[in-house]
Automatic annotation (TrEMBL):
Protein name: ATPases involved in chromosome partitioning
Region span, Disordered: 123-148
Entry keyword set: Plasmid
GO biological process: negative regulation of cell division
Superkingdom classification of source: Bacteria
Biased composition (Low complexity): 123-145
Record-level GO cellular component terms: cytoplasmic side of plasma membrane; cytosol
Native organism taxonomy: Bacteria, Bacillati, Actinomycetota, Actinomycetes, Mycobacteriales
MF terms in GO: ATP binding; ATP hydrolysis activity
InterPro entries linked to this entry: P-loop_NTPase (IPR027417), ParA/MinD_ATPase (IPR050625)
Length: 462
């Protein structure tokens, strides 16, 4: 049956569209400064026709009359009689005058002929054609009789193409997402849309990583957002890579804010110092169930290991290396939140073991200068890691835009990548980091950042 859209002009510049026979709310259309209402209605109906690959019948009602139109996928508009009964039109008491005229029967016949191409769109779903082709016997698949041995030779050719399942899903945000939700359509997002970039980023996050992968967050100045960004990024990676794949490790100074920023705070004895005291002598023999006593699971599935809150001395290089040896056996990825001293042993281990380094930098002169000193300190410990360093410029109150140009030029001169993060009130307020409570723009930026560091880390030699 040809799809039918009922459109009622509610004023000279607005109209209400409803897909006949669909249990979806109507959609409001409105003229713009450069498009009158007729153009807006025509583009709206043509979008539906292109998606359905068939002509769409339109019942267009104004205060003066009712017109029956047909709009094809090419945008061609014709006026004729409807091919399906319209409930409102049946109530019109003037069917008799239309009978003497012979053109009336010709209308439905013409539209009925166009309904054949509308049935044809079901044919492009040629999912049945692929199994038929795969089942075609070949010289290799006919010879064996055992299903476990015969088809194996053909499997690599059949399963080789990589497919991102999310790429074929209908749009959920933007104008196309609204059309899908309101009219029951399945419009795909545009290739260059934000939704497609986010889907590609999510697929990258779930991709392969090198063994013992470490993402290190550094800046020799405190209060720049290292801790909230490391916690939020661990939760973002766990959301798209899977639970229990990422662990966030607190390598900061004694009395840091890590335990105060994680969504689920650690209980007494659930920290790095207790883990080292109990299990540090045999790091390669720690069982997952035993390790779980010292880490704290966060809402999205990442795990947090608090630092030396009540210890007498900060973690040494060997302490950090032992923690890394334990965690790498149970998690795909470690995210290390560091302190403010480049002379700390745990800081130097985090740089030495890093596959990717993230440097948060607010748009303030002192933070930018500290970030430049941080990059110099990184280069002194491990020069090659600068090529895998990402500077994240974070927006916020008190920003000095004039600093951005100078800072970006200085960072890029050192060969590091630079990206931006929108202002996030939860980061600045000191509250606990719960991913579901962050702004949508922040979550999108975290997804892109997670994909960026994952892509950089996957190319690292180790």
């Amino acid at each position: 049956m040809t799809p039918t859209v009922e459109i009622e002009a509610t004023s000279a510049t607005t109209a209400r569209a409803q897909l006949a026979g669909a249990a979806v709310p109507p959609m409001e259309l409105a003229a713009t400064d450069d498009k009158n209402l007729a153009v807006v209605v025509h583009e709206f109906v043509r979008t539906i026709a292109v998606e359905q690959q068939a002509a769409v019948e339109v019942v267009y009602r104004t205060g003066k009359d009712t017109r029956f139109l047909t709009v094809g996928p090419d945008g061609k508009l014709t006026e004729n009689a409807p091919s399906v009964p319209i409930p409102v039109a049946v109530a019109d008491p003037e069917p008799a005058p239309a009978e003497p005229g012979s053109p009336a029967p010709a209308g439905p016949v013409t539209v009925a002929a166009e309904s054949i191409p509308y049935e044809a769109p079901a044919q492009p779903v040629q999912a049945t054609a692929r199994p038929a082709r795969a089942a075609t016997p070949t010289a290799r698949s006919v010879r064996p009789t055992d299903a476990a041995t015969g088809p194996i030779g053909a499997l690599p050719a059949l399963s080789a193409p990589g497919v991102n399942p999310a790429a074929n899903l209908p749009a959920r945000i933007g104008m196309r997402g609204r059309l899908n939700a309101m009219l029951g359509l399945a419009l795909a997002p545009k290739a260059d849309s934000l939704e497609m970039r986010l889907r590609d980023a999510q697929a990258t996050i779930a991709g392969p990583l090198p063994e013992s992968a470490v993402i290190t967050f550094v800046n020799l100045k405190g209060g720049v957002g290292k801790t909230p960004m490391s916690i939020a990024l661990a939760e973002t990676i766990a959301e798209y890579r899977g639970p229990a794949t990422a662990a966030c490790l607190d390598l900061g100074e004694i009395g840091g804010s890590f335990s105060d920023r994680v969504a689920v705070p650690p209980a007494a004895g659930h920290d790095a110092v207790s883990l080292l005291a109990d299990l540090g002598q045999a790091p390669h023999q720690v069982r997952p169930s035993t390790l779980a006593r010292y880490l704290t699971r966060q809402p999205n599935g990442s795990y947090a290991l608090a630092g030396p809150a009540g210890a007498e001395a900060p973690l040494s290089f060997d302490d950090a290396a032992t923690l890394g040896a334990i965690l790498e056996r149970h998690y795909d990825l470690m995210l290390a939140d560091t302190g403010n001293s480049s002379h700390s042993g745990s800081w130097r281990w985090a740089i030495t073991a890093a596959h990717t380094v993230v440097v948060p930098v607010p748009l303030r002169r002192d933070a930018a200068v500290a970030a430049q000193r941080t990059l110099t300190a990184i280069s002194a410990v491990r020069p090659d890691v600068l090529a895998r360093t990402v500077v994240v410029i974070t927006d916020g109150p008190g920003d000095a835009p004039m600093v951005e140009t100078e800072a970006v030029e200085a960072f890029t001169a050192l060969g590091v990548s630079v990206c931006r993060m929108p202002f996030e009130p939860v980061f600045a307020s000191g509250e606990r980091i719960v991913l579901s409570q962050l702004r949508r723009e922040t979550c999108d930026a975290l997804t892109v950042l997670a994909a960026t560091v994952t892509r950089i880390g996957s190319g690292a030699a180790g």
